[in-house]
Design brief:
Elements lengths: L1 E5 L14 H6 L1 H8 L7 H11 L5 E5 L5 H14 L3 E6 L4 H10 L5 E6 L1 H5 L6 H20 L14 E5 L3 H12 L3 E5 L22 H14 L3 E4 L2 E9 L2 E8 L2 E7 L1 E4 L4 E2 L14 E3 H10 L7 E4 L16 H15 L5 E5 L7 H12 L3 E4 L7 E3 L6 E6 L4 E6 L2 E4 L3 E2 L4 H4 L7 E4 L2 E6 L15 E3 L9 H19 L11 H4 L5 E2 L8 H5 L5 E6 L2 E6 L9 H5 L5 E2 L5 H13 L12
Parallel strand pairs: 1-2, 1-3, 3-4, 5-6, 5-11, 6-7, 11-24, 13-20, 14-15, 14-20, 15-16
Antiparallel strand pairs: 8-9, 9-10, 12-21, 17-18, 18-19, 22-23, 25-28, 26-27
Helix pairs in contact: 7-18, 8-9, 8-14, 10-11, 11-12
Length: 600
């Protein structure tokens, strides 16, 4: 083991405002002047203590800085001279990834850990140098004994297919396919219908851009025809997808032929289905009572709209059966209402709504445009929705107007029921082998594919599988395009990285660790039941069952470690021995200083 003590982060005047890589590179004099000031931590004393207390630390080096590009070559030479397999850098935590990547570029293949003596120590005790020095020493001791017991996870050496399977040729799938093909990745685009385009083939124009579907899809369809890297499989029935990151296999039938496709990653752009309002408002029992998709078909054919035309929002949504907001119903209603009013300004158009969901500046402008055209908006309460009057035909609608505070009655000849989108019902069957999870609300399964929150909006729990468009959640066409491009870039970054190298330079950025099963596994199955990513499996070993970890699915969360009754499954980067040694050092002044490991 080799230990670097970074001097610059112990200085009084070297605060967070000056810790900027660009500024440090441009004005190195800031660093030089800072080092000359009084140090808060006596690094010379720390160096002596380490050398006297931990004989397995082969070398302790005090350096002016450890995170600049100019530092890495010198540090790499020191590490290689000591032939150290473990490196401890006592500096700041914010530059940890830069340090690891910088050393990796210099050919250092060692476990690199950071002891945070800046944010967790120096910044806290700015006015007490003695306490800062004492705390820094304790942090360094804990890091040393923890690193002594630490091991490194390893990735299997796999051959990655340099191709991507995209399921669904709607706007999301088309944009993902063209983005990947432009980057030199081969694409297999699978579409169950006889033509690409998805639900855009059923509508007159897109909103809020007001483009025809033909113009909207033209650049993507042209790319598919001209780019040899894209193979589109139309009228294909997907049977199953099996495999893991780097090597997925899809089985499908096209006509009478069975087709098999191999891919390194999978992008799901299967879209969603339109919900028909069966059993609501006497749908299909009265003439003029139509769904939103049936209105789209009428507008596409150019059929006249006889007014007054009334839209009712949230039909079959935000209730016990579908407790979610579909998100696109309000913009679609605005689009069609504006189209009707533009074609025939004399037609009376009224929208009954609970809330008009129009997030963003563009949709807000869309809503204001509808108001300026004379389209009326009437808000109703969920407990008192509009009621329909008329036996043989639609006569009028009665509703309690929340804004007016009284019941109103409005004549109607055509009523459009906005029902939104729902996931396809067969998603679990086709994708069951790769074990994708679907979302739920209020303990009710909805069926849209789950994605990781916040910073990974198109990434599923299964490595190498991404989801975009309305398969993830109902979205408009322009948003589906953006999500398709995002999924393409995620898949591209995955394919551009050799999985066997992730355990080294990029491993620390993507995963904390990969669980490893040691001797003593009793085959109880606790880890299998607890693992949220289904990375653990029980396999027969002789006359008993033992747990095995799929390293491509494991994310290093440690759930399996917490439920193992005999401590036979561990995270190499954070074993129980390492944690125990750190605790003993921190609270009992009893550490591993008496041990000497020649492999350090």
């Amino acid at each position: 083991m080799i230990c670097f003590l970074c001097r610059c982060h112990g200085q009084i005047d070297f605060g967070p405002d000056k810790l900027n890589q660009k500024k440090l590179n441009q004005k190195s004099s800031i660093l030089e002047k800072s080092i000359q000031k009084t140090s808060r931590v006596n690094l010379e004393l720390v160096k002596e203590k380490i050398a006297g207390k931990y004989p397995f630390v082969k070398k302790v080096k005090i350096c002016d800085s450890a995170c600049l590009d100019r530092d890495f070559s010198g540090m790499a030479n020191q590490i290689q001279e000591c032939d150290a397999s473990k490196v401890l850098i006592c500096s700041c935590s914010s530059r940890a990834d830069n340090i690891r990547v910088g050393l990796k570029k210099q050919g250092v293949d060692a476990i690199v850990e950071i002891a945070d003596i800046r944010e967790a120590c120096l910044w806290i005790h700015q006015k007490n140098h003695v306490l800062a020095s004492k705390k820094a020493w304790h942090l360094i001791k804990m890091a040393i004994v923890g690193l002594a017991e630490q091991e490194s996870s390893s990735f299997p050496n796999l051959k990655t297919e340099n191709s991507v399977l995209i399921v669904g040729a709607g706007p999301a799938g088309l944009s993902a396919a063209t983005a990947l093909a432009r980057s030199g990745i081969r694409v297999h685009l699978v579409e169950k219908n006889g033509q690409p385009g998805g639900m855009l083939n059923l509508i007159q124009n897109t909103g809020p851009s007001n483009q025809t579907p033909e113009n909207f899809l033209l650049p993507y369809l042209s790319a598919i025809k001209t780019n040899p890297l894209i193979t589109i499989h139309l009228s294909a029935k997907l049977i199953s997808i099996k495999g893991d990151l780097g090597s997925f296999t899809a089985e499908m039938t096209i006509g009478e032929a069975n087709v098999s496709v191999n891919a390194g990653a999978v992008i799901l752009a299967t879209g969603a289905r339109a919900v028909l309002p069966h059993g609501l408002y006497r749908y299909r029992q009265l003439p003029g009572m139509i769904s939103a998709m049936e209105l789209e078909a009428r507008l596409k054919k150019g059929l006249p709209m006889e007014g007054p035309v009334i839209f009712i929002q949230c039909v079959g949504l935000r209730d016990e059966n579908h407790p979610y907001c579909s998100g696109i119903c309000c913009p679609v209603t605005l689009k069609n209402a504006i189209q009707i009013k533009t074609d025939n300004p004399q037609t009376k158009v009224i929208v009954f709504h609970r809330d008009m969901m129009c997030p963003g500046a563009e949709l807000e402008k869309y809503y204001r445009r509808a108001r300026s055209l004379g389209i009326n908006f009437i808000r109703f309460d969920a407990n008192t929705p509009p009621s329909l009057l008329g036996k043989e035909k639609i006569e009028s609608l009665e509703c309690f107007d929340v804004s007016l505070g009284r019941k109103i009655s409005i004549e109607a000849k055509m009523v459009v029921l906005s029902t939104g989108l729902a996931p396809h019902p067969d998603t679990k069957g086709v994708f069951g082998n790769i074990r994708l999870n679907t979302d739920s609300q209020h303990d009710q399964p909805q069926g849209f594919f789950n994605v990781k929150p916040l910073m990974n909006p198109v990434q599923t729990d299964v490595p190498g599988v991404y989801v975009c468009g309305s398969a993830r959640w109902p979205v408009l066409a322009d948003q589906a395009v953006v999500q398709g491009q995002a999924a393409a870039m995620k898949a591209l970054s995955q394919l551009s990285t050799n999985p066997s190298d992730q355990g080294k330079s990029r491993f620390r950025q993507s995963k904390f660790a990969i669980a490893r099963v040691t001797k003593g596994c009793s085959g109880c199955g606790n880890c299998v039941a607890a693992c949220p990513f289904e990375a653990c499996k029980l396999l027969s070993e002789g006359n008993k069952l033992e747990s095995r970890v799929n390293p491509l699915r494991c994310t290093g969360c440690g759930t399996c470690v917490s439920v193992c009754p005999n401590n036979s499954i561990q995270l190499p980067e954070q074993t129980s021995r390492a944690i125990g040694a750190m605790l003993l050092t921190a609270f009992k002044e009893n550490d591993l200083s008496h041990q000497t490991n020649p492999n350090l």
